[in-house]
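Course assignment 3, question 2. Fill in each field.
Student: A.L.
Task: Predict the tertiary structure for the chain below.
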Amino acid sequence: MKCYKCGMPATTFVTTTINGNTTQQYLCDECYRQQQHEFYFHSRQPQPKVKEVVCPQCNTKQSEFLKTGFLGCPNCYKAFEGAIDKLLPKIQGSTVHVPRKHMGVVEEESRTEKLKRLNLQLYKAKMAMDYEQADKIFKQIKELDPK
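Answer field:
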């Protein structure tokens, strides 16, 4: 094979993906070294600074919140809404509030939650073509919701 850039005999096959676009090239040693140098030099360029989000009421910076985990005032919730939305699922596993249960008391699943769970199981059973299981689940749904 010949080098994609200069036409000399190629010694290296390079696959590059940038923004989802993949290119494949054969390169000679010299062109490969030059490409690696350009890549390294480009990656060492200073990145443009992103404007820091600051709460307009208490002047707490988003970076401070991300470092400490503390908000400065109630207005911070609105100011850092995007960061909080990304952070909550990582910390708590969900963005839906689940109230605390009393110690030692096990609450039974509510009727609507049970119906949702059973409907999901019914869907999965149908997709797996397990019609016997789907029939059992359907009967459980009818017992809970005899509409």
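Instructor remarks: The CA atoms of residues 54 and 60 lie 6 Å apart. The first strand starts at residue 12 and ends at 18.
Grade: pending
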